[in-house]
Amino acid sequence: MKQGKYTEEQIVKILKEADAGIKVTDLCRKYGFSDATYYNWKNKFDGRRFRALPIIDTFTKECFWIEADTSIGGPRVTQVLSKISAIHGLPEQIVVDNGPEFISNALDAWAYERGIKLQFIRPGKPVDNCYMESFNGRFRDEFMGLYQVRKIIEDWRVDYNQARPHSSLGDLTPAEFKQKEMAKNGHNL
After folding, report:
1. How would you classify the pairing of strands 63-69 and 93-96?
2. How far is residue 185's CA from residue 189's CA, in Å, rounded to a whole number?
3. pLDDT class for 2, splitting at 50, 70, 90?
4. Are residues 87 and 72 in the same domain?
5. Is residue 189 domain-resident?
6. Is the distance from CB of 56 to CB of 49 less than 8 angstroms?
7. Which of 33, 47, 126, 148 is deepest in the core (most CB within 10 A)?
8. Are 112 and 146 in a shared domain?
């Protein structure tokens, strides 16, 4: 069977079966592909999948943080948000998609205790959060693996905030725009 007939999720599932102890030859026979295809998939996908949780102020376009790991659940999201809020303060609302990390009891309780409204986009409507979708697309295009990802992500985040002007911010960087707005509004955003 041709490699193109399998989705990335199916390939990862097959690789996990091998990690669980099923022989490669048995997997090849079961799914109808060669062992060469298996090893190509293993080189391409094994150890490279990671999740990223970017936290962005959609007004200033400042990227506060990008958490990266192989898994990020609701409790981890609340830890990241607590760390960020200690530095930047609490928002009135947080716009999120309907992923399991955002519909979790942990995030719901965290937001409720702090008086923060969770604004869920409509299921299947990424245009409701188009800036984040655009950001995530650019981010994914530049980062493909977990190898040194935390250091690379932090360097990229700093560069994004300090050196990349946005046309929607009058060709200012997020840091410059934030500084300008804080000066204009008496240091309150």
Report:
1. unpaired
2. 7
3. very low
4. yes
5. no
6. no
7. 33
8. yes
**Residue 138 domain boundaries:** 51-184
d(CA 113, CA 82): 12
Looking at residue 121, the DSSP 8-state letter turns out to be: P
Does 157 lie in the same domain as 99? Answer: yes
Rounded to two decimals, the pTM is: 0.57
Q: Are residues 16 and 76 located together in one domain of the fold?
A: no
Classify residue 152: in a domain, yes or no: yes
Q: How confident is the model at residue 1 (pLDDT cuts 50, 70, 90)?
A: very low
Buried b vs exposed e over 153-169: b needs ≥16 C-beta within 10 Å? beebbeebbeeeeeeeb
For residue 50, what pLDDT is reported? 73
- In the chain, how many domains are there? 2
More confident of the two residues 133 and 114: 114
Q: What is the DSSP letter of 164?
A: -
